[in-house]
Amino acid sequence: MASACEFPIRIEENQNLEVSAKIEFAEVYSRDFHLVKFNPNLPAVEHLVMHELTHLLYVLQARKDSCNKLFVTDGSHKT
Fold this sequence. Notes:
It is built from one helix and three strands, in the order βββα. By secondary structure, it is of the alpha+beta class.
């Protein structure tokens, strides 16, 4: 997967993360790398890191087929 990416992929531990794992796409965060963060204190993090990397794989495939969509939110939908 790394060879198919325009940007390198970093995986970082973050004990303050409220979810088990999340991906931050380079373009969305104005970075020159994709970042997967994980909280080692929560269950099933290995599985969920792979889950986040699968999201990246789907995005890469969709971009290759010119059918990728970017959905964003500002959090105003939360109560």
